[in-house]
Write a structure and sequence with these properties.
This is ApoA-I-binding protein 2. It comes from Fregetta grallaria. InterPro entries: YjeF_N_dom, YjeF_N_dom_sf, YJEFN_prot_NAXE-like. This protein has one domain: YjeF N-terminal domain (Rossmann fold). The protein contains 5 helices and 10 strands. The protein is of the alpha/beta class and 202 residues long. Helix 1 links the parallel strand 1 and strand 2. The two termini are 20 Å apart. Helix 1 runs parallel beside helix 2.
Length: 202
C-alpha cells in the first residue's frame, strides 16, 4: 500500500534492509486488491511473495496476476503450516484473504486453513479493509488480530473493535457525490498523500 514517494508501506518497523513481505490473497475482490498491493510493494523495492491458492476467473483479476508474474514476483504453491517457517522467511504478512466479502466465510476452504495459520504467526499482519474472519459489522469472532488495518474507501463498522497498533484509511479517490450520499466525512489528506493515519503508532 503506497503511502507516499517516501514511505511505501505503513509500518515503521519494516525498514528496507528487511524487505520481505508475504501477501496472502483470497479468491474474491480483496484478493485482487492484495495483488495490486504486491505490485506496488515491488515498485518501491520491497520483496513481496504472493500466496494465491484459489485464482479467480475474472479477466481483471487474471490481468493483475499476469502483471505480478511479469514483475517477477514469486507465487507460493502452498502456505507452510509450520508458522516458524513464515516467521523466519518474512518480515510482515499482508492479509488480503476475505475483506468485507461475507459470502466467503471463514469456514470454507482454502480460507479456513489460511486463517488457522495466520492466527499463529508472530510477525506483523497488515489487514486490507476488514481483517479476515471478522464480521464487517460486529467485528472479530475468532478471526485474526492484525497489527495494522488499512481501511479502503472508509472505515467499516467493525473497525471500532480494532485494537492494533496503527489504522490507516485509503479513500481519497472517492467521488464527492459518494462522500456526500453516505455522509463519509473523510479525513484531510495532506499534500499528495493517498493514505492517512487514523491512529498514531504505539
Amino acid at each position: 500500500i503506497p503511502v507516499s514517494s517516501r514511505q511505501a508501506f505503513p509500518l515503521p518497523s519494516l525498514p528496507r534492509k528487511q524487505p520481505t513481505v508475504l501477501v496472502v490473497c483470497g479468491p474474491a475482490q480483496n484478493g485482487a486488491i492484495g495483488l495490486v498491493c504486491a505490485r506496488h510493494l515491488r515498485i518501491f523495492d520491497y520483496e513481496p511473495t504472493i500466496f494465491y491458492p484459489k485464482r479467480s476467473p475474472d479477466p481483471l483479476y487474471r490481468d493483475f496476476t499476469t502483471q505480478c508474474e511479469k514483475m517477477d514476483i514469486p507465487f507460493l504453491s502452498y502456505l507452510p503450516t509450520e508458522v516458524q517457517l513464515i516467521n523466519d522467511a518474512y518480515n510482515a504478512v499482508v492479509d488480503a484473504v476475505l475483506g468485507a466479502e461475507a459470502e466467503m466465510g471463514e469456514g470454507r476452504e482454502p480460507c479456513a486453513a489460511i486463517l488457522a495459520t495466520l492466527k499463529h504467526v508472530r510477525i506483523p499482519i497488515v489487514s486490507l479493509d476488514v481483517p479476515s474472519g471478522w464480521d464487517v459489522e460486529a467485528g472479530s469472532s475468532g478471526g485474526i488480530s492484525p497489527d495494522v488495518l488499512v481501511s479502503l474507501s472508509a472505515p467499516k463498522q467493525c473497525a471500532r473493535r480494532f485494537l492494533g497498533r496503527q489504522h490507516f484509511v485509503a479513500g481519497r479517490f472517492l467521488p464527492y457525490d459518494v462522500q456526500k450520499k453516505f455522509e463519509l466525512n473523510p479525513p484531510e489528506y495532506p499534500g499528495t498523500e493517498c493514505v492517512v493515519a487514523l491512529r498514531a503508532p504505539r
